[in-house]
Write a structure and sequence with these properties.
Blueprint (H helix, E strand, L loop, with lengths): L4 E4 L2 E5 L11 E5 L3 E4 L7 H10 L7 E5 L5 H4 L2 H8 L2 E5 H9 L5 H4 L10 E3 L3 E6 L2 E7 L8 E7 L2 E7 L13 H13 L4 E4 L4 E2 L2 H19 L1
Parallel strand pairs: 4-5, 5-6, 6-7, 11-12
Antiparallel strand pairs: 1-2, 2-3, 3-4, 8-9, 9-10, 10-11, 12-13
Length: 228
Amino acid sequence: MDEPFCIYQDIYLIGSAEISHPYDCCVYLIDVGELVLIDSGAGQRFDSLVDNILALELAPEKITTLIVTHCHIDHVGSLAKFKQKYGAKIIAHSLDAEAIETGKGIGAEAYGVDYEPCQVDVNLQGTEQKLVFGEQEFTASHIPGHTRGSIALYTDMGGKRILFGQDIHGPYSAMWGGEPEKAISSLQKLIDLKADILCEGHFGIYQPAGEVKHYIEGYLRQLKKGLD
């Protein structure tokens, strides 16, 4: 199994199908004095995520916040555990909050796993919202298409723009809460951010800016072709 690693400055990958559990999305950690997590995996290897934080010589007790990019089980499965053990504040878009809080529509049955519903502490509203942790500012951007309440997060750090773009690859099917027409606008919105580093929801890290643009444009073309 692969190891957790530093992506850039104080940004780390601590979970993925290769690092923590085959069902897990990419789980990202940002150290801004306090620790902020983006997504939580499917819930089958919470202890592995904690061990990976420790392996990076960081303290899990400093986790204050967990930002949810969308409500699918492979992203929300360990939310309740992080909240219970470390008091993590859960942030998600209001349009996905009900699914996170009830477990309905998160797709747990497709994975054959149990889900412990988790209260969302901060409901993001509208198209963009600023979030500040330590001295670092982030922008949460509503990008519907994969789910109604999907968000991406981006920040400028050390002269680079880092984009946590979640599941750019989709799927964008109605069965999973997808809306292809909205996804087209959302992917274009991500391209327009001109990120230098993309932290994707399952397929890892893309850089520099040209590779980020190329990756997102590939899925945008697929979507447009599917609607022709």
